[in-house]
Specification:
By secondary structure, this protein is mainly alpha-helical. The protein has helices at 5-17, 20-27, 31-45, 61-71; strands at residues 50-52, 57-59. The radius of gyration is 11 Å and the shape is globular.
């Protein structure tokens, strides 16, 4: 598994802020860059971390566990 720091930072920002565009602004990236980082992270670990809704996202159960595990690191 090859997870990058950029992917983890994007994951945490989206999880905390609940929106890709807010996370992108916070990270000084474009929304599409954050989307790609999350897509690549999900592909790398083989599970979906977020449920995507019209303007909001929420963590899946797996995403919640992933978040808890990386908070302790």
């Amino acid at each position: 598994m090859n997870i990058t720091l950029r992917q983890l930072r994007a994951f945490i920002a989206v999880a905390e802020l609940g929106q890709f565009n807010l996370a992108a602004r916070n990270l000084h990236l474009t929304q599409s860059a954050v989307s790609i980082l999350i897509r690549d992270l999900e592909s790398e670990i083989g599970v979906r971390l977020f449920d995507r809704h019209t303007r909001m996202v929420s963590l899946t159960l797996v995403g919640q566990e992933f978040c808890r595990r990386h908070e302790k690191s």
